[in-house]
Each structure stands twice: as structure tokens, then as C-alpha cells.
Design goal:
The protein is of the alpha/beta class. The protein is 38% helix and 24% strand. It has helices at 40-47, 69-73, 91-101, 106-119, 135-147, 165-177, 192-198, 216-222, 228-235, 237-245; strands at residues 2-11, 14-24, 29-33, 55-60, 63-64, 76-79, 153-157, 184-188, 201-206, 209-214. The chain has a six-stranded mixed beta sheet, with helices on both faces. Strands 2-1-4-5 form a four-stranded antiparallel beta sheet. A hairpin with a 2-residue loop joins β4 and β5 (63-64). It starts with a strand and ends in a 6-residue tail after the last helix. The structure holds adenosine-5'-triphosphate and magnesium ion. Adenosine-5'-triphosphate binds at residues 11, 14, 16, 34, 36-42.
């Protein structure tokens, strides 16, 4: 459903992605892990057609994102790390606009809009201008908009930022179940416990390289660890070293 093939990204002389090859199969949720600056958002922006790769190709549901961008874009829903929404629309107007883009028939669209607003507890605010929404409400509305076309692939960059506990649980359940009927989910996160509990496989990026890929169980067993956190810290140790050199404020 998702395929990165030898994807490289250079920003001037800095290489953010060093030949990433990675796939997400139908029915699978994959968590992209890695320290700040590892290349997660870069990979997601290339996959969603926002950032051109320096080399390599990306495919969504068999469609080359950079050769057939319009066909590719019909195949995924995307929740970016920083949601951008039109403040002068209401939530319902935004969702109707999205339904129109995806050519969802009118009555079907109205039904789905109601469902998504209810799922994210936004029904009461359906007619409020988005500019009056809090950060978390915008995040929830972005999810509702991404899910409305029921896309084959759901792509989420840091799903939990700003969500209250109720919304966080909704999103956790969604990430764990959305892929089941032959769809795919790709999400980045710093919450290793989230990755461990909802992802079928985890991929760890470190300095633009894939340093680990497998089911949480495989990863724990291969590294003789109790949890992903231990493995993460071990494999990204240079980041931990840098922190250790900082003065300890409590010392
Ligand atoms: N437009 C840009 N120009 C130059 N360097 C960039 C640009 N965008 C990202 N980078 C660099 O590429 C690297 C990867 O950034 P990226 O945003 O993909 O990391 P990330 O894994 O998403 O990190 P985080 O966990 O903090 O979100 C970083 O070193 C970053 O500074
Ligand atoms: Mg990021």
C-alpha cells in the first residue's frame, strides 16, 4: 500500500534521508520512530507529494506519487504535524468542501460528516468558525477531514500532540483498527508505548537511516529487551550521549 524505494533527500549539503526502502502492506499499521531530526516528517512529506525526493521513488496503493500526483492523492488521508485549516470556514463547511473534492455523493457525505463530527466530539461546534477552535479541536477536525473519504491509506505525523485523553483514546483505537479491512496506516510518534500497543511493525529512523524494522515482539526478542524504549535508547545512543554531557539541573 505504501512503498519507499531508495528514497534520498538532501537539503543543500545535509542529507536528511539516506536511501530509505520501506513498505507497508495491506492490513498493516506501521509506526515510524526516531529522535528529533531523524527524518520522519521528511519521509512523510515526500510520501504525501509535498516535498520532492532527491532520488528514489514513492508509491501509494501502487501509484507513483511523483509521476501521477492526482491519482496518488486520491488514495490517502493525511494529518500533518501542524494542522493548517481555513479559519474562515466552519467545521461543516470544511468537511463539505473535502467531500466535494473527493466527489462523495451529497447524502452519503452528510451522513459521514455527522459520523466523523460525533466520533471526535465536535458536533456541538460544527457551525463554529475554525478560527475559534482550540489547538486540540483543530487536530480532531483534521482527523475527521482525513477520514471522510475513507482513504485506503491513512498517514499521520505525530497523532497525539494536543489531544485530550478522550480524543487520544479515539485516535489510539483508530490507528490500531483502521488498517484491518485491507487498508494501511503509517504514523510517526515519539510515544513508544503507543507504537508498541497499536503498530503491527515499527521502523526506527536514526540520522536518515532505517536502523530497525520488525514487529514489536521481534524487536524486543532480537534485542533481548523488555520494551521498545530500551531498544530505542540503545540504537540512538549518540543522542543519549549528547544529553549526558548536558549539566544535570538537579545535581
Ligand atoms: N527545509 C529544510 N531545510 C533544511 N533542513 C531541513 C529542512 N527540513 C528538515 N530539515 C532537516 O532534516 C532533518 C530531518 O528533519 P525531520 O523534520 O524530517 O525530522 P523528524 O524525524 O520529523 O523530527 P521530529 O521528531 O523533531 O519531528 C533535520 O535535521 C532537519 O533540520
Ligand atoms: Mg517530525
Amino acid at each position: 500500500m505504501v512503498r519507499f524505494q531508495e528514497v534520498k533527500k538532501r537539503y543543500g549539503r545535509f542529507t536528511a534521508l539516506e536511501g530509505l526502502t520501506l513498505s507497508v502492506a495491506p492490513g498493516e499499521a506501521l509506526a515510524l520512530l526516531g529522535p528529533n531530526g531523524a527524518g520522519k516528517t521528511t519521509a512523510i512529506r515526500i510520501l504525501t507529494g509535498q516535498l520532492a525526493p532527491s532520488a528514489g521513488r514513492v508509491f501509494l496503493d501502487g501509484v507513483d506519487v511523483w509521476r501521477e500526483p492526482v491519482r496518488a492523492k486520491a488514495r490517502f488521508g493525511y494529518v500533518p504535524d501542524r494542522p493548517y485549516l481555513y479559519g474562515k470556514l466552519t467545521a461543516v463547511e470544511l468537511l463539505r468542501f473535502v467531500a466535494g473534492l473527493y466527489r462523495i455523493p451529497r447524502r452519503e457525505a452528510e451522513r459521514r460528516i455527522e459520523e466523523e463530527l460525533a466520533r471526535f466530539r465536535l458536533t456541538r461546534y460544527a457551525s463554529a468558525l475554525i478560527e475559534t477552535y482550540s489547538h486540540g479541536m483543530r487536530q480532531k477536525l483534521t482527523f475527521a477531514a482525513a477520514l471522510l473519504p475513507q482513504p485506503p491509506v491513512l498517514i499521520v505525523d505525530e497523532p497525539m500532540v494536543g489531544l485530550d485523553p478522550v480524543a487520544a483514546r479515539t485516535v489510539r483505537e483508530l490507528l490500531g483498527s483502521y488498517a484491518r479491512p485491507g487498508r494501511a496506516v503509517l504514523f510517526s510518534t515519539h510515544q513508544l508505548e503507543l507504537a508498541e500497543s497499536v503498530a503491527d511493525r515499527v521502523a526506527l529512523l536514526h540520522r536518515g537511516r532505517l536502523v530497525l524494522l520488525g514487529t514489536p515482539e521481534e524487536v524486543r526478542r532480537a534485542h533481548d529487551s523488555r520494551n521498545l524504549e530500551e531498544v530505542f535508547l540503545r540504537l540512538t545512543e549518540d543522542a543519549a550521549d549528547a544529553r549526558a554531557q548536558d549539566p544535570d539541573p538537579l545535581a
